[in-house]
Amino acid sequence: MTTPTPPEPPRRRPLMLLAAALALAAVIGVLVPDGHGRYADSQRRQGLTSGLKDLRLALESYATDHNGDYPAVAGWASTLTKAKSHGLPAGRLPANPWDPSGGPIAIARGAWPAALPRAAAVAGGAAMPAIGQDLGRGHFPGEGLADALTYGTILYDYDPTSQIYVLYAIGKVGDRATVIMTTGNASC
């Protein structure tokens, strides 16, 4: 004689997996709200900082090859990228983390911001600006002239008399163009 098998209980496992997946998606949605969110901007600032360090190493490599002289301000970026021996990957500028097309960091053109001391002033004892220095309302790459208010901009100035250079990385905090890192050979 065979005993009848009891009916199977309803399967809840697929529903529990679906609920867990939806909860995970909600958590991710809170952490990364959109391409311009606070978390994404923090990651972009880290990327720009890394790019600035690469440029500083390339400048030091250039000076080693040129008897201690650094590139002139006019055309400095193209000078570094022409000679692939200066440590820039593939002879290209680092990527601009705020450029959706993955283009290179912006090299500022136009007026120098009054809030940032130039290399000659730093050589004369002026302090480098504090990280977080607000330069004004910023804009994304491709929205007009690549200037000091473009997110992902690198500013470079060199004083050949003192052989001092300064580099400033301009990032985004809120809707403001902000100094996120400063460096130069006077700050060593």
Summarize the structure.
It is built from 4 helices and 5 strands.
Give the assembly state of these chains: single chain
Largest sheet: 5 strands, mixed
Query: H/E order of the elements?
Result: HHHEHEEEE
Shape annotation: elongated
The N- and C-terminal alpha carbons lie at a distance of: 91 Å
Percent range for helical residues?
Answer: 25-40%
Radius of gyration: 25 Å
Chain-averaged pLDDT:
81
Q: What is the SS-derived class?
A: alpha+beta
The number of helices is: 4
Task: State the strand order across the main sheet.
Answer: 1-3-4-5-2
Total strands: 5
Strand content: 15-25%
* Unreliable segments of 5+ consecutive residues: none
Map the helices and strands:
Blueprint: H1 13-31, H2 38-65, H3 76-82, E1 106-107, H4 119-123, E2 134-137, E3 153-159, E4 164-173, E5 176-184
Your description of this structure?
By secondary structure, this protein is an alpha+beta fold. The protein has helices at residues 13-31, 38-65, 76-82, 119-123; strands spanning 106-107, 134-137, 153-159, 164-173, 176-184. Strands 1-3-4-5-2 form a five-stranded mixed β-sheet. It is elongated, with a radius of gyration of 25 Å. The termini are far apart.
